[in-house]
Description:
Layout: H1 11-14, H2 22-26, H3 50-60, H4 64-69, H5 94-106, E1 112-117, E2 133-140, H6 143-146, H7 157-182, E3 187-191, H8 200-206, E4 211-212, E5 218-219, E6 227-234, H9 248-254, H10 257-261, E7 272-274, E8 277-279, H11 284-293, H12 299-303, H13 311-325
Antiparallel strand pairs: 1-2, 2-6, 3-6, 4-5, 7-8
Helix pairs in contact: 3-11
Amino acid sequence: MARNPAYVANPAFTDLFPEISGNAVNGLGSTQPRQASPFFWHPAGKQTHGALQTAVTEHLQRVPELSNHFSRNPPGGRGPKPINQARQRVDKPAAIWAKDVKSFALSHEGDLVGIAKMSPDYVYEGYEIKEPWVILVGVAMAYDELAQVPATFDNPTGAVVVAKEYNRAARVCRKLTNYILSQGYYAKAYQGPYASALNMIPAAIDAGLGELGKHGSMINREYGSSFRLSAVTTDLPLLADERDEFGADDYCTRCEACVRACPPDAIFDNKQMVRGVSKWYVDFDKCIPYFGDTFGCGICIARCPFSRPGNAFRLIERINKQSAKD
């Protein structure tokens, strides 16, 4: 039985669903491991739900504040264009390069940074990434703004902060890309929300930026789910970070904050089998119509107990104490 049966999906979006379910495209229920298929935030012509994506993005553009941040020249910009790769490579040990790129990202608008060795699991089906390393960058969102979701036409604050921070994330990864190019190595920037070859969340988990939450977004030990991602792939010699498993996954098994807060009842109570892996999963077919209606929703990440400023530290301390008792 649905916990939130009052929401009725908007036909302006549901009428654009193709015959194939978005959950099927994402591999829900599939026991066969495979790469993720290009989906929703990929170019409309390269995925099954292109017409739906177009309708949702056009709806977002109806809000002037959002349109400004998704324009070609948003406030603050999206960072510099790529420079030419320097002919002479600067030679440093991998450990020094890892330290340098992290320092650069954190001093150029980034709040989180981690490094992972490239894996096929990070690449969408039909794409190729040749660089051996990926640098993940996180930028925090102001919680007092995020907490105003769901956004409305008259009060789009909760949606605007997401768009604003996507632009900051883009600036960080573009600046970092140019820094690496200036050192004689290849680098390519990946920015959200529109996807390309790189599937950022599994890479960010391996890079130590957090754990996957029940709401399908990441949970970081400091910012909870109140952050956005960008990334840079490179052939710069680096060292991989370790995963940061601090108890969020276990906490999610007992917590239902996001489940109960979700108006379209799109969040599963339990982990689901997705492309051969048991993981937290959000029902795409239920989520996206409400996402479109509310200019990006965000209720689940705002209501996540880890997202409230300072609360993650207290929750982790509680988790550690409970683990010590067990």
